[in-house]
């Protein structure tokens, strides 16, 4: 295909998308108006499934398959990072030298570490009841763990962060979401259908599969962010056999 033909294909596709966007725009409800068809249907569906947080109902029930795609994007990004930043045979890790930490920063990090971890768990566990959920709570958990890096040193973080186990947890969280979807097929319904008992409204056990899918996402996101940050932090490496050393050996 020539360059000119590719440009025509691109222009045609862009024009078609623009037409669709304009057609959708002119049919949108007036801003601030009283008619909100999607919101009304989403809230009604959330209440019928005993899910107090309508956003979690949309994410993990009404369009749970889309959320699987979003989770898989993060999983694929972390997998790609692990492959690209893996240690090669001509590299060796250099242990980072301990840096001096101001006492107020050290005290703040030690105090906030358990508080931040508890907040992350709370956000995940109450995702079907209040704002938050697996994505937000998972990020809070992962970043809270790195308060050790700020308040202590990198070696303290490494002791509490065995990267291999977090890589397994990342895969388990992704697989758990898929298994819950297959459970709907086994139960005679659709993939990721909400087939579990709905429980009592506004309690932790409400929402059917929503809290389970939410927890699976929380595990996957928390582990994925930890692995992602670990791979970038571990880039304190030194090339053992660089070009200069090889030239020295040849001479």
Q: Which strand order does the major sheet show?
A: 1-2
Number of strands: 2
Instruction: Please identify the structural class as seen in this structure.
Output: mainly alpha
Q: Could you give a short account of the major beta sheet?
A: 2 strands, antiparallel
What is the overall pLDDT average? 87
Write down the overall geometry.
globular
Number of helices: 11
Gyration radius over CA? 24 Å
Query: Level of helix content?
Result: 55-70%
SSE order, one letter for each helix or strand:
HHHHEHHHHHHEH
Report low-confidence residues grouped into runs of 5 or more.
237-251
State the distance separating the first and last CA atoms: 50 Å
**What portion of the residues fall into strands of 2 or more residues?**
under 5%
């Amino acid at each position: 295909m020539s360059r000119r033909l590719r440009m025509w294909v691109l222009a045609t596709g862009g024009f078609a998308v623009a037409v669709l966007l304009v057609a959708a725009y002119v049919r949108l409800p007036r801003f601030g108006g009283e008619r909100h068809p999607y919101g009304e249907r989403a809230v009604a569906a959330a209440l019928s499934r005993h899910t107090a947080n309508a956003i979690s109902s949309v994410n993990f029930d009404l369009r749970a398959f889309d959320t699987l795609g979003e989770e898989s994007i993060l999983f694929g990004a972390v997998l790609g990072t692990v492959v690209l930043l893996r240690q090669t045979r001509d590299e060796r890790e250099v242990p980072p030298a301990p840096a001096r930490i101001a006492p107020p920063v050290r005290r703040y990090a030690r105090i906030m570490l358990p508080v931040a971890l508890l907040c992350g768990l709370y956000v995940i566990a109450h995702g079907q009841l209040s704002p938050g959920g697996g994505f937000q709570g998972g990020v809070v958990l992962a970043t809270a763990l790195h308060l050790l890096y700020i308040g202590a040193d990198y070696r303290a973080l490494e002791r509490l962060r065995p990267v291999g186990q977090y890589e397994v947890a990342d895969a388990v969280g992704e697989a758990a979401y898929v298994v819950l979807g297959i459970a709907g097929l086994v139960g005679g319904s659709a993939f990721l259908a909400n087939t579990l008992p709905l429980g009592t409204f506004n309690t932790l056990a409400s929402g059917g599969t929503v809290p389970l899918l939410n927890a699976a996402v929380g595990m996957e996101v928390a582990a994925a962010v930890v692995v992602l940050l670990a791979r970038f932090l571990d880039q304190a490496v030194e090339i053992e056999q660089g070009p200069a050393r090889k030239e020295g050996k040849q001479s």
